[in-house]
Amino acid sequence: MAERLLSVENLKVSFFTAGGENQAVRGVSFHIDAGETVGIVGESGSGKSVTAKALMALTPPPGKMVAGDIKFRGESVSRLSDKDWRKIRGNQIAMVFQDPMTALNPVQKIGKQMVEVIRRHRGLNQTAALSEAIEMLRQVGITEPERRVNQYPHEFSGGMRQRVMIAMALSCQPELLIADEPTTALDVTIQAQILELLGRLKERSNTSIALITHDLGVVAQVCTRVIVMYGGMVMEEGTVEDIFYRPKHPYTKGLLRSLPKRESGFKERLVPIEGTPPNLLDPPPGCPFMERCPHAMETCAALPKVTEVSPSHRYMCWLAEGAEEARVQ
Amino acid sequence: MSEHNELLVDVRNLKKHFTKGRDVWGRTTDVLKAVDGVSFQIKRGETFGLVGESGSGKSTVGRCLLRLYDYTSGEVHYDGHDLSALGERELKPYRRRIQSIFQDPYSSLNPGMNVLELIGEPMDIHGLQRGEERKEFVASLLERVGLKREHLYRFPHEFSGGQRQRISIARALSVRPDFVVCDEPISALDVSVQAQVINMLEDLQSEFGLTYLFIAHDLSMVRHISDRIGVMYGGRLVEVAPSDELYDNPLHPYTKALLSSIPVPDPHVVSERVEWVREPGSVIPDLREVSPGHFVAME
């Protein structure tokens, strides 16, 4: 049994806006073990990015974690002070964002920004930190790192900047890397390189990765386990095989069905999920997917229980209850 | 595709160069060759997909066809007429026939106009129906794109991304065009909504006999919707072929690299990635037909 690195219990995050309380995350529970790559999938508004930020206590105002508990290595971190968090952020949990241009300081050389991070978190001196920065850049596939450390962010392409971000995040040897849509802004060829890079890092270190994405292709190619979110809740959770070959939740099934097929010779009509995602200012009390679900029934107005299919695979749907009743009869 | 034989759009050696730098005398010193000699044809009723990485020039080609840009050189023939030779006044009837849908439905709709005004505006510009007749037409168009009559007096912020893209589509169709340039029409939409919009574009195409230029970076969707696909790189077309032919039998090394980069949504399918780096200073040659309908830019 792998070591439990992170566990999230009943996490709730709300944004208190002029229009009311936007309940972005409404009771999310999951865990990440050492060495795993966990994909958190969902569309915009599903709460995946808010969940990721909450893991590092980076929820921006007017957002607030209103309930739940986050444990890192068995210790609760959700009530830590800012000062204590600074020791964890970067050192043990690091984050890579979608847009590397806004995450880097445009008027500072790459080397200087990396040295600052390394010195702060690892207590190395200037010279040692600089050679460490150069080594990290080389590891993420940047050629001539000795020259590149003296360049500014605008002298790097989007893919290269994302590599710098990853190098910076990994320079402190974190135990958990949270990557929030790290390849969404990149071209497919560059995306493939970054995903390969993440894969190679896994082979070398035991760093766990939480990959937040909306791209099911990316999930299938890199992740070992998947959490499917919708309307601020976890709809289904399982290994990649569970999710892609044995999906249980109607939303997961719908997502997979809506992808274009790759067979040639005939043009198959796409099968979309009709409707639009729920409004989280006034979320439905029951299953968030109810309005768009082809199997919706009266019981769906109440929140379904979580059903375990196997030790690795669980989902939240009333259909599971129905299926069990049918078997009993 | 055998059913599409009549030529609608004929792009001949299109070039669009942007001035990047000038010296103190105002003379051009640095030029960005966004599109540098591109030729292709689109037949009436078909969907031509244009793919390539950011900066490859695919959106610039679309903007040149819409004459949002005046191109540096080359010709665009539309339904037998050379548009490059026309002035703004003579161009107006073609501006009605050629419409566009853009990526971001949040910035392409004027937030201060309601749906009736938004969809009615192009009709005013081209002097089509007015008054009650126009309102009826707009309402029927709204219903056709999956919205409701009661949405007529609502504003863009009251709609989701997918619904806004439906409004953009209704706006484009309000003047009964025959050619629509779709520039990344689904990339800003949620995964679960993308298929809805694609299906609708396909339905509208067969209902109104539309021809599409579909510009996108999502290669699996482009394959789904397009009859033929052109692959752009560095302002040039490197390969043009019928969709299935391009995906099953790519010839240009860049096309191979691009296709092998698509992450397959199946955990057991591991695609063997091909990399390609263009030799610095090398010139991309003109397209050459290697098998019927399959063109590639290779020596």
UniProtKB/TrEMBL annotation, chain A:
Q: GO cellular component annotations, sorted alphabetically?
A: plasma membrane
Q: What Gene Ontology terms describe what this protein does at the molecular function level?
A: ATP binding; ATP hydrolysis activity
SMART domains per record = AAA
In its keyword annotation, does this UniProt entry include Ligase?
Answer: no
The record's section on SUPFAM superfamilies has: P-loop containing nucleoside triphosphate hydrolases
Keyword entries, A-Z: ATP-binding, Cell membrane, Membrane, Nucleotide-binding, Transport
Tell me the membrane topology, using the record's own terms. Answer: Peripheral membrane protein
Q: Where in the cell is it found?
A: Cell membrane
Q: Does the keyword Plastid apply?
A: no
What InterPro entries does this protein map onto? AAA+_ATPase, ABC_Ni/Peptide_Import, ABC_transporter-like_ATP-bd, ABC_transporter-like_CS, Oligopep_ABC_C, P-loop_NTPase
Q: Where is the ABC transporter domain?
A: 6-256
Q: Which family does it belong to?
A: Belongs to the ABC transporter superfamily.
Put simply, this protein is called Oligopeptide/dipeptide ABC transporter ATP-binding protein
UniProtKB/TrEMBL annotation, chain B:
The ABC transporter domain is annotated at 19-259
Q: Which InterPro entries match?
A: AAA+_ATPase, ABC_transp_ATP-bind, ABC_transporter-like_ATP-bd, ABC_transporter-like_CS, Oligopep_ABC_C, P-loop_NTPase
Q: Which UniProt keywords apply?
A: ATP-binding, Nucleotide-binding, Transport
Gene Ontology terms: biological process: peptide transport; transmembrane transport
State one Pfam family annotation: ABC_tran
Q: Which CDD domains match?
A: ABC_NikE_OppD_transporters
Q: Which domain of life is it from?
A: Bacteria
PROSITE patterns recorded: ABC_TRANSPORTER_1, ABC_TRANSPORTER_2
Q: Which SMART domains match?
A: AAA
Q: Which molecular function GO terms apply here?
A: ATP binding; ATP hydrolysis activity
Family per UniProt? Belongs to the ABC transporter superfamily.
| The name this protein goes by in its record | Oligopeptide transport system ATP-binding protein
Organism in which the protein naturally occurs: Paenibacillus taihuensis
Organism lineage reads as: Bacteria, Bacillati, Bacillota, Bacilli, Bacillales
